[in-house]
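Consortium newsletter contribution from the modelling node. Members have asked for a concrete example of what our holo predictions look like. Here is one, prepared for the 3-methyl-2-oxobutanoic acid complex that several groups have been discussing at recent meetings.
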Amino acid sequence: MPQNTLHTISTMKDNGDKISMLTSYDATFTHNINEAGVDMILVGDSLGMVLQGLDTTLPVSIDDLIYHTRCVKAGNQQCLIMSDMPFMTYRTPEEAMTNAAALMQAGAQIVKLEGGMWLKGTVAKLYEQGIPVCAHLGLTPQAINKLGGYRVQGRTPEQAQTMIDEAVALAAAGASMILLECVPAAVGKAVTEAVDVPVIGIGAGPDTDAQVLVLHDMLGLTPGKKTRFVKNFMAQEDDIQGALKAYADEVRNQTFPAPEHCFE
Ligand code: KIV
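And here is the predicted structure:
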């Protein structure tokens, strides 16, 4: 199988093919995720929670992301690799360029930044320098202290319109993908229809072009109360490989996410 590129993923959107993505942080799981037929991997700063046992993603460093991106790259065959830029590593376009370049050199094909309109200049600068960007909107965990908790975003018509405007402006500035976290399904649909670039959803309903889940969540490994948008694929399969493949298949045939995984 050839390596997936931005072009592969955009063509899937244009053809109406649903796109699957999982987080991964090491070579072995990356190999298994590839074997299962998943299209994209996110080396997420969620590694702060699932690998390092932290409460938030805030202490995760650029060196952590560089190390885990290298590990993922080593085990990868065809998935497109996206890496997160951690908290406070993109305060200025210059700082963003230095840190994004390090992630690209470690094996990322695209970097993800959390934020709205204020990121327009940074996205444009990175794009100009050949670094594709995914803009993360909705629930942005790096802003957890400002948001006041892990809550559904974009519930009022005004908030929903702001999110649509941000997605349109960031795509116009050069963002190659948008990621929407924890928003009503109608907002997921509206944003997906408003932009030409692929929209990835996590708790954003069935109408986004792509779906992503945190690996440890969909394998039922994360302790504590399950978030509404997470499905435990190990509950229906005999082994990890079966669960990864069921996820890829269910995204592709649009049985995941089901209504019980969505917010109205
Ligand atoms: O870090 C991460 O895993 C993420 C997902 C929750 C989308 O950003």
